[in-house]
Amino acid sequence: MTEATRNLIAAAESGDAEGVAAALDAGAEIDARGSGGMTALVAATKANHVDAARTLIEAGADVNAKDDIQDSAYLYAGARGHDEILRLTLEHGADLASTNRFGGTALIPAAERGLLSTVGILLEAGVDPDHVNNLGWTALHEAIVLGDGSSRYVDVVRALIDGGADIRIPDGDGVLPVDLAAGRGYDAVVAELRR
């Protein structure tokens, strides 16, 4: 790895957008892999360094390049609610069908974490609300099973349903979303599913 490329990755990790630009000007390989197979863009995204990520994306960094644990800038930004970076990846060719190490789209962990604004961005972009991951769960299942039934999760469930999620898809054990919610005592979620 050249010195310029090492400088690029270090600048991205520390959020130094000017350092990123300087390293690129010096001939750094934009999608080179550093620690954990991370590109500079993945490193900047994981630290939510928006300016460094923007500099890389606008210079042509691959928003779909995955690290050793199958995180890309697009998938990680979606999973963690880094909405500014997420929007940039969507504007620059994010693969909406790409999946993480659990076989899930970016929408599934966003729903799991109750990230309403991120869920909205991903649904508007056209991510399939009914994609089933390796655990046999859709975004709706994860919002119920891994959520806590609070108003935040009720809002996410509503957004998913309004975004086209099919409430009749059972989980891997054949249990419907409404029964998953009822079994947990999430009455407001149940009401939303019966709306």
For this entry, give a set of tags.
53% helix; 12 helices; 195 residues; Serine Threonine Protein Phosphatase 5, Tetratricopeptide repeat; mainly alpha
Describe this structure in a few short sentences.
The chain has twelve helices and no strands. The radius of gyration is 18 Å and the shape is elongated.
Structural summary, described in words:
With 195 residues, the chain is mainly alpha-helical. It folds into two domains: 1-95, Alpha Horseshoe (Serine Threonine Protein Phosphatase 5, Tetratricopeptide repeat), CATH 1.25.40; 97-195, Serine Threonine Protein Phosphatase 5, Tetratricopeptide repeat. Helices cover 53% and strands 0% of the residues. It has twelve helices and no strands.
Question: How do the strands and helices of this protein lay out in sequence?
Answer:
Blueprint: H1 3-14, H2 17-25, H3 40-46, H4 50-58, H5 73-80, H6 83-91, H7 107-112, H8 116-125, H9 139-145, H10 151-162, H11 177-183, H12 187-194
CATH superfamily annotation of the largest domain: Ankyrin repeat-containing domain
Query: Order of SSEs, N→C?
Result: HHHHHHHHHHHH
Q: Overall 3D geometry?
A: elongated
Query: What Rg, in angstroms, do the CA atoms define?
Result: 18 Å
Strand content: under 5%
